[in-house]
Amino acid sequence: MVLLQILLYQVVGVIEGSDDPMSATFTPLKLLAVNLSVGISGVVAILLLAHLAKVPWRSLISSPRAFDGRRLAQYLLGAALLVGAGIGVVALVAPESPGWVAFGVSGTTILMLVVTVLSTPLQSVGEELMFRSAVLPAAASWVRAVRPALAVGLVVSSLAFAVVHGSSDPWLFGYYTFIGVATGLMAIISRGIEAPAAFHIANNVLFRASTR
After folding, report:
1. What string of H, E and C letters represents the secondary structure of the chain?
2. Is 101 exposed, middle or buried (0-12, 13-18, 19+ CB in 10 A)?
3. What gap in Å lies between CA 135 and CA 178, rounded to an integer?
4. Which of 85, 159, 192, 194 gives a 20 to 30 Å CA spacing to 75?
5. Tens of pLDDT, residues 182-192
6. What does pTM read for this prediction?
């Protein structure tokens, strides 16, 4: 994921004519590079684990049932309503949190919004593939007994998910860990990644779009 992001940042630097493509300045193309790197890495993680464990890649997406696109759509609609309601409450209680106090629209804002809506689902699904479909079962395989294996898989995948987000704030780190555990349990209970992927997509797209 990191290597892909660095590589894509270099491509962005060439396109934008930047002398320092790794600078902290965020642009629509850099956001696209980040989202693509995560999405591609999720697919690579699934293929790698399927090869190492000698299991069908589809079993890492949903098992024992087949992947259900209609279930994903239903979960996505429900998650969008819940997340949207949550953003609305936050906006009423603390309007400065979503960044709506000083609202303005520019060409860059529109481009960021378009890239967010079109590519953030790839990033969200990529993270679910990496941490819920690959890391969770891989870590769980270290332990033979089912319940301890479940605990190990959830703990390792959730902590890895929090670490990748790179926050030094203990409260934010705890938030990411909690989200990792919650989405991991969604995948286990529903026996597939439709539910966690739907929540992740709705959460990331709506929150990012509301703060652009």
Report:
1. CHHHHHHHHHHHHHHHCCCCCCCCCCCHHHHHHHHHHHHHHHHHHHHHHHHHHCCCCHHHHECCCCCCHHHHHHHHHHHHHHHHHHHHHHHHHCCCCCCCCCCCCCHHHHHHHHHHHHHHHHHHHHHHHHHHHHHHHHHHCCCCCHHHHHHHHHHHHHHHHHHHCCCCCHHHHHHHHHHHHHHHHHHHHHCECHHHHHHHHHHHHHHHHHHC
2. exposed
3. 16
4. 159
5. 999 999 999 99
6. 0.89
Which amino acid makes up residue 184? Answer: G
pLDDT in tens, 150-186: 999 999 999 999 999 988 899 999 999 999 999 999 9
Exposure string over 109-134, b if 16+ CB within 10 A, otherwise e = eebbbebbeebbbbbbbbbbbbbbbb
What CA–CA distance (Å, rounded) separates 162 from 169? Answer: 11
Phi, psi of 54 (to 5 degrees): 55, 50
- Using an 8 Å Cβ cutoff, are 182 and 174 in contact? no
CA distance 199 to 194: 9
**Is residue 134 a contact partner of residue 45, using CB atoms and an 8 Å limit?**
yes
Token pair 């004519």 is found at: 17
